[in-house]
Write a structure and sequence with these properties.
Elements: E1 3-8, H1 14-27, E2 32-36, H2 40-45, H3 53-62, E3 64-67, H4 81-88, E4 93-99, E5 112-118, E6 128-132, E7 135-138, H5 144-160, E8 165-170, H6 178-190, E9 197-202, H7 203-212, E10 219-222, H8 224-237, E11 247-249, E12 254-257, H9 275-288, H10 291-307, H11 321-331
Parallel strand pairs: 1-2, 1-3, 3-12, 5-10, 8-9, 8-10
Antiparallel strand pairs: 4-5, 4-11, 6-7, 11-12
The structure holds 1,4-dihydronicotinamide adenine dinucleotide.
The site of 1,4-dihydronicotinamide adenine dinucleotide has 21 residues, from loops.
Length: 332
């Protein structure tokens, strides 16, 4: 069987890192046929919409996609196509496994934490207005049903992936209603999973705890903004933005993508690290049940990283994107 997968190359370094990922998956014999559709700035500058209808239609049909980063211009122009994509397809779980990699220098060597971020609500409502000159109100939209939905996803995930404990993150002391509901929904759903340890911690405690000893956590469940920030913090624990994969998942559709953005400062130079999108591609293969091919590629990546001879600049090496990709394909 061949899987048809929606491929959104993305902006900036997106084309370079998704291109490298496709080369590796194809070299490993992944049974994937790409349906390539531009979005973001690339589509906007070509006269289209940042989030073209064709992207939505293709993802609804294929149910699986892989996506490069999309640029959100600062100031006016268009609002984030990333946020719009997650909301319109109800990709409500941002799933980011953060794992130490061989040969990648970082403060810790044994990190294994999963960050689960609620993707559709909170301060990403985009609803803000100036009540009186100089006084701005921004709405943090939170519903109990959305909190329950991601809590159930988190518990199902923990059960199916052998994770033992989920920590829900909050700031209830200052946001008793919004954050209180998120925590309450977590505990309510948790009653159905008494075999999984459950606890709660404030966002400030978690930030300090991650910097001191990341492995005191197993799975972290966070609202949108907290999850966005903590994902990047966690990337810093294992070698930076170039190495952390992710996915945005709903009940029927999953879009795999790196945590990093379009990196305009290095775009077009052919030096970006494609690892984060490649590892997202491996998450995609696992998700489809193609675990053998995913494991083969993972081994090849691990070998290249362990040898340390062909690493990109962000990992302290001198290789460019193509050389790093070739090294992995050679191992395959
Ligand atoms: P960024 O992640 O693009 O870049 C931050 C720094 O990390 C830069 O110095 C960049 O060169 C470096 N970096 C990122 N990925 C790298 C890689 N694969 N290899 C080597 N170095 C890498 O974050 P920034 O600059 O805040 O955002 C740029 C644009 O990306 C913005 O328009 C932002 O909205 C968008 N963005 C899109 C995301 C998505 O599509 N999921 C996620 C985050 C940002």
């Amino acid at each position: 069987m061949t899987y048809r997968v929606t491929l959104i190359p993305g902006d900036g370094i997106g084309v370079e890192v998704t291109g490298a990922t496709c080369r590796v998956l194809e070299a490993a014999g992944a049974p994937v046929e790409w349906e390539t559709i531009p979005a973001g700035m690339t589509s906007f500058e070509a006269g289209g919409k940042p989030l073209p209808d064709a992207v939505i239609t293709s993802l609804k049909r294929n149910r699986i996609g892989i996506k490069g980063p999309l640029t959100t211009p600062k100031g006016r122009g268009f609002s984030s196509a990333n946020v719009a994509l997650r909301k319109s397809l109800q990709l409500y779980t941002g799933w980011r496994p953060v794992v130490s990699l061989p040969g990648v220098k970082s403060r810790f060597s044994d990190v294994d934490v999963v960050v689960l971020r609620e993707n559709t609500q909170g301060l990403y409502s985009g609803i803000e207005h100036e009540v009186t000159p100089g006084t701005i109100v921004t709405l943090k939209v939170s519903s109990y049903s959305a909190a329950e939905r991601i809590a159930r996803w988190a518990f199902d995930y923990a059960r199916n992936h052998g994770r033992r404990r989920i920590t829900v993150c909050h700031k209830k002391s200052v946001l008793p209603l919004a954050d209180g509901a998120f925590v309450e929904a977590f505990h309510r759903v948790g009653q159905d999973f008494p075999f999984i340890e459950q606890d709660e911690a404030t966002i400030d405690d978690i930030s300090m705890g991650l910097a001191a000893d990341p492995n005191q956590y197993d799975v972290l469940l966070l609202q949108n903004l907290y999850g966005d920030i903590i994902s990047d913090l966690c990337a810093g624990l294992v070698g930076g933005l170039g190495v952390v994969p992710g996915a945005n998942v709903g009940d029927r559709i999953a879009v795999f993508e790196a945590v990093h953005g379009s990196a305009p400062d290095i775009a077009g130079q052919g030096i970006a690290n494609p690892l984060a999108v490649m590892l997202s591609g491996l998450m995609m293969l696992d998700y489809m049940g193609e675990t053998k091919i995913a494991d083969n590629i993972r081994q090849a990546v691990w070998d290249v990283l362990t040898e340390g001879k062909t690493l990109t600049g962000d990992l302290g090496g001198k290789a460019n994107t193509a050389e790093f990709t070739d090294a992995i394909i050679d191992k395959l």
